[in-house]
């Protein structure tokens, strides 16, 4: 990674002042000063790197899934964007660069893309490099026919993990398909490891936990599709990116999952939620839930991070588009929370 020698555009200084004002205003709103339902005071400090005393997550292990900013980058929504951020009339490339500058100035060092946003892999890599951002993981196609090309891009970007926002084909619609999906993951993961780009990961929503089968070829007990995938994939080639938010919505205890399967979970998606009624992924199931800034939902993050020590290698912030705070406030507040939380 080249040294960061980029000269900040004038709009960035104005934008940072704008976002600071937004954060100060947001901190005065009901519930903004509490870390979830645990009753702990927010660190509420301007510095973003290890602002707490004691054991915290190192910045080098924190990343941001760019899907958080998808509507802003795509130009379909500017909710929560600083007043001087590129909006109407700007290009996708300008908005993407603004996001990179924003993340870099927060102190974030890693990103998890889901698209190159019209750039080539080389152009995307150069832009990330310019702002001191590493692409350690990426959500990408798991199509067997294009896997070699995807791995070539992954190698160029310097990825340590490859995967997608779900699982490989044929999916989890039957017990037989779950086993076949495990075989596909093993093959794709082996190719990636041999390519030097690391293990493949699978990423859950709620369906992987809500869908259950009797494990006929295993111990004959009823298990979630997620557990069957874990038990039928090769740990040399396959790992898992546990989306904490979706697991919580599914009624799972994320701490218990990490304690039981932690040696197979190298990545976490850091997503929080207030769940009124757990269930399958809406609208298919009865779940009633609401996404929140990290630390303001139902997840016991201190216990989860303690359980993850020595197991999880990358903690990826993500919020699905839509919540009122917008991606900029979400990312700034959530990054400070997880970076400063003592556990």
Short description:
The protein is of the alpha/beta class and 343 residues long. Helix content is 37%, strand content 15%.
Explain the overall architecture.
- The chain is an alpha/beta fold.
- The protein has one domain (45-340): TIM Barrel (Alpha-Beta Barrel).
- It contains twelve helices and 14 strands.
- The strands form four sheets. The protein has an eight-stranded parallel beta sheet with strand order 5-4-3-14-11-10-7-6.
- Strand 4, helix 4 and strand 5 form a beta-alpha-beta unit.
- The radius of gyration is 20 Å and the shape is globular.
- 45% of the residues are buried.
Supply database-style keywords:
single chain, 343 residues, alpha/beta, TIM Barrel, eight-stranded parallel sheet, two-stranded antiparallel sheet, 12 helices, 37% helix
Q: How do the SSEs run, as a string of H and E?
A: HEEEHHEHEHEHEHEEHEHHEEEHEH
- Number of helical segments with 4 or more residues: 12
The largest pleated sheet is described as: 8 strands, parallel
Radius of gyration using CA atoms only = 20 Å
Count of domains: 1
Q: Which architecture per CATH?
A: Alpha-Beta Barrel
Helix content: 25-40%
Low-confidence stretches: 1-14, 20-48
CATH superfamily: Divalent-metal-dependent TIM barrel enzymes
Shape: globular
- Please report which band the strand proportion falls in: under 5%, 5-15%, 15-25%, 25-35%, 35-45% or over 45%: 15-25%
Q: Structural class of the helices, strands and pairings? A: alpha/beta
> In angstroms, what separates the terminal alpha carbons?
31 Å
According to CATH, the fold-level topology is TIM Barrel
- In spatial order, strands of the major sheet run 5-4-3-14-11-10-7-6
Under the CATH scheme, which class? Alpha Beta
Arithmetic mean of pLDDT? 87
Count of distinct strands: 14
């Amino acid at each position: 990674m080249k040294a960061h020698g980029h000269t900040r555009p004038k709009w960035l200084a104005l934008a940072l002042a704008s976002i600071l004002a937004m954060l100060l205003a947001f901190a005065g709103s009901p519930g903004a000063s509490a870390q979830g339902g645990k009753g702990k005071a927010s660190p509420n400090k301007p510095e973003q790197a290890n602002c707490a005393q004691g054991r915290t997550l190192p910045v080098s292990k924190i990343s941001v899934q760019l899907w958080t900013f998808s509507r802003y980058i795509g130009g379909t929504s500017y909710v929560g964007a600083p007043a001087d951020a590129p909006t109407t009339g700007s290009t996708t490339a300008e908005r993407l660069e603004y996001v990179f500058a924003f993340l870099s100035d927060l102190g974030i060092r890693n990103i998890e893309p889901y698209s190159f946003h019209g750039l080539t892999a080389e152009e995307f890599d150069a832009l990330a490099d310019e702002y001191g951002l590493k692409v350690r993981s990426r959500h990408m196609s798991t199509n067997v026919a294009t896997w070699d090309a995807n791995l070539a891009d992954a190698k160029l970007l310097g990825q340590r993990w490859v995967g997608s926002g779900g699982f490989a084909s044929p999916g989890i619609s039957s017990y037989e398909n779950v086993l076949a999906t495990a075989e596909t993951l093993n093959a794709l993961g082996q190719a990636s490891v041999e390519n030097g780009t690391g293990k493949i990961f699978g990423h859950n929503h709620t369906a992987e936990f809500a869908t259950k089968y009797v494990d006929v070829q295993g111990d004959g007990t009823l298990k979630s599709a997620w557990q069957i995938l874990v038990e039928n994939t090769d740990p040399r080639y396959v790992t898992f990116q546990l989306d904490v938010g979706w697991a919580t919505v599914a009624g799972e205890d994320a701490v218990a999952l990490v304690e039981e399967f932690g040696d197979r979970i190298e990545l976490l998606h850091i997503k929080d939620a207030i769940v009124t009624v757990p269930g399958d992924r809406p609208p298919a199931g009865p779940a009633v839930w609401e996404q929140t800034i990290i630390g303001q939902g139902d997840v016991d993050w201190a216990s989860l991070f303690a359980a993850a020590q020595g197991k999880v290698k990358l903690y990826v912030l993500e919020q699905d588009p839509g919540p009122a705070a917008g991606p900029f406030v979400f990312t700034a507040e959530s990054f400070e929370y997880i970076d400063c939380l003592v556990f």
